[in-house]
Amino acid sequence: MNATVAEAIAMRDVFISETARLLDDNPRLALVLADISAGEGRFAQAGVDHPDRVINVGIREQLMVGVAGGLALAGLRPIAHSYAPFLVERAFEQVKLDFGHQGTSGILVSVGASYDWSEGGYTHFSPRDVALFDTIPGWTVHVPGHPDEVTGPLRAAADSDESVYIRLSNRRNAEAHASPDGKLTVLKRGGQATVVAVGPMLDNVLAATADLDVTIAYAATVRPFDTQTLRELAGTTADTIALVEPYLAGTSDHIVNAALTDRPHRLLSLGVGREDLHRFGTPDDHDSWHGLDPAGIRASLSKFLSV
């Protein structure tokens, strides 16, 4: 079972503290906010310490991303941060134009994931964000499943000239497992199927497959996807693959299918459904409704493996 929101908030806390340190150490780095987190602890102090490189544009997310793109054109390395639906879906035109079309790069860091703040309603849900990034070439996408998996990708992004999206969540696994090189981490080996768990889905997958003869691989970096290791693992399980993602079901199907295009294979895709459920509930409720709790994952896998 995923940890509670109170415990999981540490993922964003790590991001805030580390970004403040990076702003102190790297004069090229800039932070653009749209009110979210602007007054919190280290960010508030960073605004005092670096008023020319910490910019709060108010509740104007499209402007936030546009300003970040402009800072990139001026030679700075921008970080833009807000809830996922505001940062990616609401401001997607600016991501497409001010970064993609202009040939600039920056770091986008979201919170809220697919339905972390479920009481906020559908305006705060964002299961489509990673699928949207697949429409713009060149983005690296990290989906940490534990607070300890945030710092490494953030530091690497700050030192690079790549376009990077870091998808933070209030959901978390009990332990960190991410590989520092972005490769799949193999946690268990079996013979029936290869099950790839993305980010905070891992603990639910482990609970669902505890007594199944399957290989479990963990991914915290999903773009680029480690297709080399996937091919190697799939070859040991008769090219039978299950993919469990914390965002829109089927988001990574095209990558898996392309990686195995020369081999017959079977693919089960589990993730957030496309239907608007018109429900609030808790994040655990939404896991259950979308079949992403241990019982739902187990039922889907058992049916898939029995065919």
Automatic annotation (TrEMBL):
Annotated Transketolase-like pyrimidine-binding domain residues: 9-176
CDD domains cross-referenced by the UniProt entry: TPP_PYR_DXS_TK_like (cd07033)
Alphabetical list of Pfam families matching this protein: Transket_pyr, Transketolase_C
GO molecular function: magnesium ion binding
SUPFAM superfamilies, per the entry: Thiamin diphosphate-binding fold (THDP-binding), TK C-terminal domain-like
Name used for this protein in its record: Transketolase central region
